[in-house]
What does this fold into?
Amino acid sequence: MSGVSHIEVDGGDDGLRVDRWFKRHYPELGHGRLEKLLRKGQVRVDGGRVKANTRLEAGQTIRVPPFGPVSAEAPRKKAKPAFDKKEAAFIQGLVLHMDESIIVLNKPSGLAVQGGSRTERHIDGMLEGLKFDLPERPRLVHRLDRDTSGVLLLARTASAAAKLGKAFKHRQTRKIYWALTVGVPRPENGTIRMMLAKQMGPAGERVVPVDPDTPGAQSSETHFAAVARAGQKLAWVAFMPVTGRTHQLRVHAAEALHCPIVGDGKYGGADAHPGGEIPSALHLHARSIEIAHPDGGRLSISAPLPEHMVKTWDLLGLDQEDDGNPFEELDV
It folds into this structure.
């Protein structure tokens, strides 16, 4: 029987529930036994008691007690089928950059990063196809919404995941998103600061602006600047988020700028669909990221626009070769 272990949560497990973390790293430990260990306080996070549904954050330390051998009567898991070669070819085709510690993907719009109750196909389920010469599959270190395309970082080692996770946690990254909005922001550049919280409504969970004293309220901050416009009806807007709240850019565009992102019916309603020849898909793209590389120096990489945004940019005569980064001039 091994002794107590103290394991740091890496970036790929940021936001994961405690029970799912154990299922991922200690699949032999059944849920019932885990619940018993939690009740007795033998499993702790940063020294405190937690529940099975507690969400973890990168950098936290999990106390893993010795839980003894697995019962011989426990059912054996079925062997996993060989990873689908077509899926491997697909995920490998998304690679923009790879080195010893990092893989960067250009995530397509419409593909989820992680699975859910009604999501069977997702990036996390395809990571086996990105092992290449290493024994372990790469780890997710941040996420994008299902319908947001663009730059997605993966760590190839636990050490790289920990370093990248800390960089995201401490906001030591520079991320730029491109969007097409319905309407032109007034003023055309500035900074949005809002308190946001998740709330359930008739159409399901939404993120909404709230008062600071609202339970679950989180601060959010985004720099924005209009890069170009198509008359007064549409604008190419660059966003640089400081925080990384769920649906942050979509809510900021719709609620603070009153210019919803094209294709974002959830937050913009019918106004988010200008019609005509403009595709109805969400026009939000994680264009670039700059971050400290785990092995030293800095990594800066951009992702080309997805097909539906290329069509719109061509239709509106917007220049895809523009770096779309007005923030250098704004000194932010």
Remarks:
- The longest helix spans residues 158-169.
- Residues 70-79 have pLDDT under 50 and may be disordered.
- The longest strand covers residues 189-201.
- The two ends are 53 Å apart (CA to CA).
